[in-house]
Amino acid sequence: MLARRSDGYHELETLFQSVGDADRITLKESSRGVDLTVSAGNAPSGEANLAHRAAVLFLRRWAPGLGVSIDIDKRLPMGGGIGGGSSNAATVLLALQQMTGEPADQLELHEVARELGADVPYFLLGGTALGLGRGDELISIGDLPERPVWLVTPPIGISTAEVFGNLDLVGLRPSRAPIDWSRIENWRWPVIEGGWNDLEETVMRCYPVVRDVYNALVEGGATLVRLSGTGATLFAFFGSPPDTSELISKLPQGSRVVQTETLSRSSLDKIRVVR
Ligand code: C5P
Which residue has the CA at smallest separation from atom 12 of ligand 1? Predict the structure, then answer.
């Protein structure tokens, strides 16, 4: 976290990583307009969903005669800080791009994604990437070895805007050792593990249940636990597999626990097939 910008956003140096936990989206061509339903899980349907706006922006510009119906099987938590809404919006852009014969060039698609939200451009890319500016100026990092990761979300939703709004920039740790961006193409997991999340302290102070999850994961043997974005999800790496049931019993009631893997860009490209 570097500074508050004149547009109200915050200047970031952040790392994005794809993981194997996702919503499922089905798109079908229709005669006209955009229709969005949420068949399972908790997310707004219709125009209130960012994925609806993504479809409207794409079709208006590149396929005005076309309509689409979208259904979302929502599995990721709302307000979880793992980019569910942003990734759905980006996935709709990619799917429409494929359905309509790729009328947009990469730069144009990126611009539309930026308009939808600061995290949306990353989800056009996937894999491991450094986000600068609002988080939407991206530098890709080559595929890293995939590794098991736990994602744990306490039973609360956190508003990104609220966390950034409450942030006391003066109270933030000035900075640890500066990061050497010039060597980014050689980054490996140990380098990435040396990073930190400036929002962690603020979020744990405002939402003590996030700290409870953090403590339970550390006590359960995690070698690294960190807040994802503005939370509420924490991700954890373990040196050796933990005692799963013992660890889950120590987490706050109602926590969502997913044991998955980090995904490289090449794996992601294989999964993200539109039929
Ligand atoms: O762009 P998006 O709608 O995802 O951002 C949600 C909110 O998070 C913004 O309105 C802003 O308050 C905050 N934010 C920020 N700095 C960023 C990204 C998001 O202050 N780099």
Answer: 161
